[in-house]
Design brief:
239 residues; mainly alpha; 69% helix
Amino acid sequence: MTFTRQGFMEGVTASTMMTVGAVAWGVAVGVLAQQKGLGFIESMAMSLLAYSGTAQMITLQLWQDPLPWLGIFIAALAINVRYILLSAALRPWLASLPAGQVYGTLAVLGDSNWGLAMRRFLDGRRDAAFLLGSGIALYLGWAVGTAIGTLAGTAIASPQRYGFDFFLPAFCATWTVAFWRGGGRLSEFGIAALVALLVQHYVDGPWYIAAGALAGSLVGFVRPQPQPQPQTEQTSHAG
């Protein structure tokens, strides 16, 4: 595995369109942060230190007085636990690199640049700096978008009117479609959604997020996994 400047620049270039999306997503978070009473410094600190669109959006939607610290922590944990699996999937390629390169790269790991990098690694290309370059590009786009949204938020009286509050449901729906691998997986999504709706109806606070995630995970864990069908050798007969 290598770690070169060329790979870094390839990562920056390959993530251009995704960086534009990160800017738009950051604008939405910045606008909602401003509407919740966070100033420019607080909004930027959240984006630069947390750097998680889904967790930040959930946090802002749960933001109230008094602040539900425990509920926010559990919701953010349920959303971001996937990064344990994403980073573990990178171990076969990053394990041989120095610790500084590995942890510096993982600091800007996101869904988008993980997907780009995994595709390249599986194709046989072995420059880990691609992951760092694409991650930094997305990180900077996210920061710029947050700054724009926070500064422009004062001019937007009702973010809901422009659909800023719909970013999170749209993002989650998109990833649900992306992760659904056919009808056999519908049970996990269906039960997770049902449990989340029931908990939301009967229990105050954001517990429905963790409950839905836990229910779907448990169903996926206990459900029998389909066994691969043995391949039968096809023979052809010349006539």
